[in-house]
UniProtKB/TrEMBL annotation, chain A:
It catalyses: a quinone + NADH + 5 H(+)(in) = a quinol + NAD(+) + 4 H(+)(out). Its main location: membrane. InterPro entries: NADH_UbQ_OxRdtase_chain4L/K, NUOK/Mnh_C1-like. It is a multi-pass membrane protein. One of its GO terms (cellular component) is plasma membrane. Keywords: Cell membrane, Membrane, NAD, Oxidoreductase, Quinone, Translocase, Transmembrane, Transmembrane helix, Transport, Ubiquinone. Its EC number is 7.1.1.-. The chain crosses the membrane at residues 6-23, 35-52, 58-82. This is NADH-quinone oxidoreductase subunit K. It comes from Candidatus Sulfurimonas marisnigri. GO terms for biological process: ATP synthesis coupled electron transport.
TrEMBL record, chain B:
GO terms for cellular component: plasma membrane. It catalyses: a quinone + NADH + 5 H(+)(in) = a quinol + NAD(+) + 4 H(+)(out). The chain crosses the membrane at residues 6-24, 31-52, 58-78, 90-108, 140-161. NDH-1 shuttles electrons from NADH, via FMN and iron-sulfur (Fe-S) centers, to quinones in the respiratory chain. Couples the redox reaction to proton translocation (for every two electrons transferred, four hydrogen ions are translocated across the cytoplasmic membrane), and thus conserves the redox energy in a proton gradient. This is NADH-quinone oxidoreductase subunit J. Belongs to the complex I subunit 6 family. It is an enzyme of class 7 (translocase). It is found in: Cell membrane. Keywords: Cell membrane, Membrane, NAD, Quinone, Transmembrane, Transmembrane helix.
Length: 100, 166
C-alpha cells in the first residue's frame, strides 16, 4: 500500500511539473504549485501511516499552512498584475526584470 | 482487498482530474477540476486513517483556498481576450511530458525496487486530533510558532501589495 501511495505521489508531482513548465496562464501555474505541495503531502501521510508515527502528519499540517499563506500572497499578486496589464499571460509580467 | 479497489478508483480520479486541470484553457475549468483532485486526495488521506488531516484538507484546501481562487477568478471578470493565446499548448504539454517522463520513471523504479513497506502496527488513536495535537505541541512547538509568524507576514504582505498606489 505504501508503494502504491508513493507511485501515485510521484505521478501527481510529475503532472504538476509539466503544468508548471508548459502553461502560460498564471492561475493554472499557481494551481500546479498547489498540486506539487499536495503530492508531497500524500507521500508524507502514507509514510506516517506506515510507520505509525504522527510527526509526518504535523509536517504536512505545516505545509498546508504554508500553502494557505502562499494562496493569500498569490491572490493579491493576481489582482495587482491584472490591474496593471489586464492579462493573465505570465510572459507579460516582467516588471521586475526590465526597464520600461 | 476492499482498500485496494477504493485506492485504485481514487487514484484514477485524482490523475484524470489533475490532467484536466493542467490542460484546460479557461481557468474556471481548471479550478473546478482541481477541487475534484483535492477532495479525492482527502479521501486518500482518510483511507490510511489520517482523519484529522482529512478534515483539514477538506476545510482548508477544498474549502478556503479553492473558494478564494474561484472568488478571484470571478472578481477579475476574465474575458477570453485577457487569456494568453497558447496556440501550441498541446505541443508544449507533450514535449514537457516527454522530458519529465524519464525522471518519474527512474523514481518509480527506485520505489518499486526498494523494500520500504514497514507496516508498523497503528495504535487505536492514530491520526486523531488528540494524537496529532500532542505531537504538534510537544515535539514541533518551534515550527508551529514560526508558522504563526509566517501567516502574519503573509497577511501584512497581501494587504500591502493590493493597496492602491497614490
Amino acid at each position: 500500500m505504501l508503494k502504491a501511495y508513493m507511485v501515485l505521489s510521484i505521478i501527481l508531482f510529475s503532472i504538476g511539473v509539466v503544468g508548471l513548465i508548459s502553461r502560460r496562464n498564471i492561475i493554472v501555474m499557481y494551481m500546479s504549485v498547489e498540486l506539487l505541495l499536495n503530492a508531497v503531502n500524500l507521500s508524507l501521510i502514507a509514510i506516517s501511516a506506515d510507520l505509525a508515527d504522527s510527526s509526518a502528519q504535523v509536517i504536512s499540517l505545516v505545509i498546508i499552512a504554508i500553502a494557505a499563506s502562499e494562496a493569500a500572497l498569490f491572490m493579491s499578486l493576481f489582482v495587482v498584475l491584472f490591474r496593471n496589464r489586464a492579462s493573465l499571460d505570465a510572459n507579460l509580467f516582467d516588471m521586475l526584470g526590465s526597464k520600461k | 482487498m476492499q482498500n485496494e479497489i477504493i485506492f485504485t478508483i481514487l487514484a484514477l480520479i485524482t490523475i484524470v482530474s489533475s490532467i484536466v486541470m493542467i490542460s484546460a484553457h479557461r481557468p474556471i475549468d481548471s479550478a473546478l477540476s482541481f477541487i475534484v483532485t483535492l477532495v479525492s486526495i482527502a479521501a486518500l488521506f482518510a483511507l490510511v486513517n489520517a482523519t484529522f488531516l482529512f478534515v483539514v484538507q477538506i476545510i482548508i484546501y477544498a474549502g478556503a483556498i479553492l473558494s478564494l481562487i474561484l472568488f478571484i477568478i470571478m472578481f477579475l471578470n476574465i474575458k477570453d481576450s485577457n487569456l494568453p493565446d497558447e496556440k501550441h499548448k498541446n505541443r508544449w504539454l507533450m514535449g514537457t511530458s516527454i522530458i519529465v517522463a524519464p525522471f518519474s520513471y527512474i523514481l518509480i523504479d527506485l520505489i518499486m525496487r526498494s523494500d520500504i513497506a514497514v507496516n508498523g502496527v497503528a495504535s487505536e488513536n492514530f491520526g486523531t486530533i488528540k494524537d496529532v495535537g500532542l505531537t504538534l505541541f510537544s515535539k514541533w512547538i518551534l515550527p508551529f510558532e514560526l508558522v504563526s509568524i509566517l501567516l502574519l507576514v503573509a497577511l501584512v504582505g497581501s494587504v500591502t501589495l493590493s493597496k492602491k498606489e497614490d
